[in-house]
From TrEMBL:
The reaction(s) this protein catalyses: a 2,3-saturated acyl-CoA + A = a 2,3-dehydroacyl-CoA + AH2
Species whose genome carries this gene: Chitinophaga oryziterrae
Gene3D superfamilies xref list: Acyl-CoA dehydrogenase/oxidase, N-terminal domain (1.10.540.10), Butyryl-CoA Dehydrogenase, subunit A, domain 2 (2.40.110.10), Butyryl-CoA Dehydrogenase, subunit A, domain 3 (1.20.140.10)
Descriptive protein name: Acyl-CoA dehydrogenase
Location of the Acyl-CoA dehydrogenase-like C-terminal domain: 466-569
Length: 597
């Protein structure tokens, strides 16, 4: 039976903060079924055969090259895999769609064009379009016959998307809306056939429109000269009395924000998937360089400083993968639950993604920062050669940087992580008050200095549980102390968000390990145990620092001293030789001469 159906997760959005997950409910990458593995291999082969050999041509924006690659991907079903069959898609589940995004993530600029096309370029129409709109555009977008783009950002409205200035005015005959304005940083704009464009009707009704290439008054600026992803078409677009038929209004008038924000939830997870695929690729490139580059009459892979880098790159990649597919399954199961309850496909997908919007924001931040770390260390391992365009690692380094800006900056996503969690609590969807009060009571009691619990990784389980207590302690006190002023304390909010990110990733990695041990035994997962123990040990120190900085920003006197003692208690980890653990991890990677997990 498909593992995605066997597992029935029970956690609601953001509930990981206050509840424990059951090991056998968690989906891990090792649970992919045979079909999913075949689809991943097909996507990887597409990158290896069709994209990697022509990266230089892609970066030079060779006329017609990127559209032809998208068409080839469409012919193999890689673009329309998650689209419903009635619109020409393959009807694949959310986990499979995530897996395709990951596998195609190693394609540099192609990955950006593909993700923009299948995500923000197509999903607004699929999820919010009328039946006639979906019938007209989705089959062609799924096959690659038409290419999609998304026009939201303007020169003076980036993170503050609702401050857009582009206007839409109903014509005298009531048949068209006349668009006037400017959009910038529009991915795929140089070759896209259909654009989702946001404008304000009557100056205040933020609304989405479907605009086709070639419409009068719709013009393009020159290609932007970018730091990275040079092969991705990025232009400004201009509207001057551009007539858009009234039947091309997308969704409800004045409800464009629902499209913009809901699509971003899915986009954030997809970005993490693509970053993961790129991270795996750079791991392999760097390992292979380290095993062939010799200094002092031996491969540099033999040196401890290099082993540390190779191992840490792998640790962050493996933990990212653990958190990604844990979340993908939560969304997949919620979607199935909503469909079973009678919700139509589009509402089910959007509802599932909205339920786990906190986790999607976490993944966006962590995935993009993992890739940035991996490419940075990859350049360092390459030394001077890493600074040369002759080596693909320099391209990977430049291409990575945009991911911390795409799909909402990482700063915005950190702020959203806590903001959305608190809003869920205020709406009664998440009980934070009870566990937060329990943490305060625990601080007043005699500490638990240990128990006879001999279950596998009991110390790590307890430490992750304590991480959650640390978050509840800091967040609870901050809300109580600052109340309405909390949203102005962005530094504090981001510290708490970083605690939550570390905790979610640590728990996801631990749950993945425990599930594999239940199935395969501990000896078969010794290196994975090294990965998890090393990550959790280091996470304890990072969470301790975030918590102390947060507490010191708003508390003082006895309250401050009590809370700092509590953080010390909740982040106390047993001694662990992370140096030897990293050497064991690196030695395996070096022996295999590639990233293996």
């Amino acid at each position: 039976m498909d593992a995605t159906i066997e597992n029935k997760p029970t956690l609601k959005g953001a509930e990981f903060l206050v509840k424990e997950s059951v090991v056998n409910e968690v989906f891990t990458p090792e649970d992919f079924n045979e079909e999913q593995r075949m689809i991943r291999e097909m996507a990887e082969q597409f990158i290896a055969k069709e994209v990697t050999p022509i990266l230089e041509r892609i970066d030079k924006l060779e006329e017609g090259l990127m559209p032809s690659l998208l068409e080839k991907a469409g012919e193999q079903g890689l673009l329309g895999a998650p689209f419903p069959e009635e619109y020409g898609g393959l009807g694949k589940d959310f986990i499979t769609a995530t897996l395709i995004n990951e596998a195609l993530g190693a394609g540099h600029s192609f990955s950006v064009a593909m993700a923009a096309h299948t995500g923000i370029g197509s999903l607004p129409i699929l999820y919010f379009g009328t039946e006639s709109q979906k019938q007209k555009y989705i089959p062609a977008l799924g096959s690659g016959e038409m290419k999609g783009a998304y026009a939201l950002t303007e020169p003076n409205s980036g993170s503050d998307a609702l401050s857009a200035k582009t206007t839409a005015k109903l014509s005298a005959d009531g048949k068209t809306y006349l668009l006037n304005g400017q959009k910038c940083w529009i991915t795929n704009s140089g070759f896209a056939d259909v654009f989702t464009v946001f404008a304000k009707i009557d100056g205040d009704k933020f609304t989405a429109f479907i605009v086709e290439k070639g419409t009068p008054g719709f013009t393009l600026g020159a290609e932007e000269h970018k730091m990275g992803i040079k092969g991705s078409s990025t232009r400004q677009i201009y509207f001057q009395d551009t007539p858009v038929p009234v039947e091309n209004v997308l969704g409800e008038i004045g409800k464009g924000h629902l499209i913009a924000f809901n699509i971003l939830n899915i986009g954030r997870l997809k970005l993490c998937a693509a970053a993961l695929g790129a991270s795996k690729n750079v791991n392999t490139i760097t390992i292979q360089y380290a095993t062939t580059r010799e200094q002092f009459k031996q491969p540099i892979a033999n040196f401890g400083a290099i082993k540390h880098k190779l191992a840490e790159m792998a640790i962050r990649t493996w933990t990212c993968e653990s958190a990604l597919y844990r979340t993908a399954q939560l969304i997949d199961e919620k979607e199935k639950e909503l469909v079973a309850a009678g919700k139509p496909f589009n509402e089910a997908v959007l509802g599932a993604a909205e339920e786990y919007a906190v986790e999607c924001a976490i993944l966006k931040v962590y995935g993009s920062e993992v890739l940035d770390y991996v490419v940075d260390e990859g350049v360092q391992v390459h030394g001077g050669n890493g600074f040369s365009d002759e080596y693909v690692i320099s391209k990977a380094y430049r291409d990575s940087r945009i991911n911390r800006i795409f799909e909402g900056t990482n700063e915005i996503n950190r702020l959203l992580t806590l903001d959305m969690t608190l809003k869920r609590a205020m709406k009664g969807k998440l009980d934070l008050m009870t566990p937060a009060m329990n943490v305060m009571k625990e601080l007043m009691s005699i500490p638990d200095f240990g128990s006879d619990d001999e279950t596998p990784f009991s110390a790590e389980r307890k430490l992750v549980s304590n991480f959650k207590k640390a978050i509840l302690l800091v967040a609870g006190a901050a809300v109580q102390k600052l109340m309405t002023k909390l949203d102005t304390e962005q530094e504090l909010l981001m510290h708490i968000a970083d605690m939550a990110i570390e905790t979610f990733v640590a728990e996801s990695a631990l749950l993945r390990l425990l599930k594999r041990i239940e199935i395969e035994g501990e000896s078969a997962n010794a290196l994975q145990a090294d990965i998890v123990r090393t990550y959790i040990t280091d996470a304890a120190d990072r969470i301790n620092k975030y918590a102390k900085d947060a507490i010191n920003s708003f508390a003082e006197g006895d309250e401050q001293r009590m809370m700092l003692l509590g953080i010390k208690r909740f982040t106390k980890a047993a001694s662990y030789n992370t140096k030897e653990a990293r050497r064991r991890i690196a030695d395996k990677l070096i022996a295999e001469n590639k990233y293996i997990w």
